[in-house]
Amino acid sequence: MPPACGTLPRTKSEMLKFLDELLETILKLDSGDPITDCPASTLAILPTRPGPLIALAHSKLHAYPFASVPPCWRRLYTDASIVKAIHLIKCNIAAIREQPSCTRPVDNIDRSLGNETTYEEQWLDEALKALDMALIMTGASGRETLVENLIAALQKHVQDPQQPPKKRRKLEGNLGNFPATKVDKRLRVSLIGDQIPSVAHLTLSGFERHLKDGGPLIIQGALTHWPALQERPWSDPAYLMEKTFGGRRLVPVELGQSYTDAGWGQSIVTFKEFMEKYILDPCKTKDQNIGYLAQHDLFAQIPSLRNDISIPDFCYATLPPQTAMQSASHNDAPSQLEEPLLNA
Q1: Alpha carbon distance 265, 257 (integer Å)
Q2: Confidence band (pLDDT; 50, 70, 90) for 16?
Q3: DSSP strand E in the chain: where?
Q4: Less CB within 10 Å around the terminal CB: N or C of the chain?
């Protein structure tokens, strides 16, 4: 089994061993693994030609309604993406860079831009793109921890202070060097006609009593203890860049005020591009697209961000019983959940 997240490789030799163990885990086909339902010809080339298999699985993902995609194609897309990322990393860490088997980038990654700095950044971007696309496109079911550990190990390797400073700067890119500014809080919000009541230091029982009466309520100070608002502030772009591997992580973004608008669309961009284009730019005009993260489980993709928040006790409140009139007018009345749903 590959090492757990708490025992990430510390040296180049440990990193190579770690990658080999991950690759062995992926290529060991158990009888219950969904990928075994794929044609044998595809599985035969998984260790050496992951690129064409990613393209094949991608076409299968779009050939069915989302809920009806056969599990084998989801798994093939995920595993081929991981194999591609592992090959890219192995062929580009300094310890094996000169081995003959690694003189050519996997699946012909383009070297045409020329200089070494560009290529160093390119292979790293390609490896992260493969892993993030697996998470975004399939959820990487059953491989989530493996992908998380691989990304954590890669970031640790890139930031290793023992690497030559010049090479480290190439690989880190903008990691930690984002402008030391806070996010512009001058948000465009709709005007509220009626004043919403506000309370401070509300207890759980007090909140449950309020639920019986209904109506919106502002609870002051309910989130002030969050690390996201204190020692690990999400309002600090440099911190978010660090948590997203120098802004290289990919995120799906919805563009436009509403999905009913003519110009509404979706795009997958780097987190750095999302921050620069839609969050930090204070000079937006009214005609420019609004971009926001939506319909995507960011905490599943980047679990370390989940540690920056906590679920308020209010989310565990007991719902009041419905009146007969409410039951008659709401056929889809909410039921009590065992655990609150995170929408982030």
Answers
A1: 10
A2: very high
A3: 198-200, 218-220, 250-255, 265-270, 291-293
A4: N
Question: Residue 216: CB partners within 8 Å, gap ≥ 6?
Answer: 196, 197
Give the 3-state secondary structure of residue 114.
coil
Which of 91-105, 148-162, 225-239, 288-302 bottoms out in mean pLDDT, i.e. has the lowest?
91-105
What own/partner pairs with CB < 8 Å and gap ≥ 24 does 291-296 have?
A: 291/253, 291/254, 291/255, 291/267, 292/253, 292/254, 293/251, 293/252, 293/253, 293/254, 294/254, 295/252, 295/254, 296/136, 296/251, 296/252
Q: Which two tokens stand for residue 85?
A: 């990322």
Assessment of whether the complete model's pTM goes beyond 0.85:
no
Separation of alpha carbons 302 and 155, rounded Å: 13
Would you say how long the chain is, in residues? 344
Report pLDDT digits (tens) over 58-82: 999 999 998 999 999 999 999 999 9
SS3 content of the chain, % helix, strand, coil (to 5): 50, 5, 45
- For tokens 């009214």, name the residue: 286
Q: Which amino acid is at 62?
A: H
Tokens linked to 55: 């393209």
Tens digit of pLDDT for each residue in 242-298? 999 999 999 999 888 777 887 788 899 999 999 988 888 756 545 566 888 877 888
Residue identified by tokens 């010809």 is 41
What Cα–Cα distance (Å) separates residue 92 from each residue in 8, 12, 89, 99, 157?
A: 19, 11, 5, 10, 12
What tokens does 282 get?
């204070």
Task: Supply 115's token pair.
Answer: 């200089």
Phi, psi of 268 (to 5 degrees): -110, 120
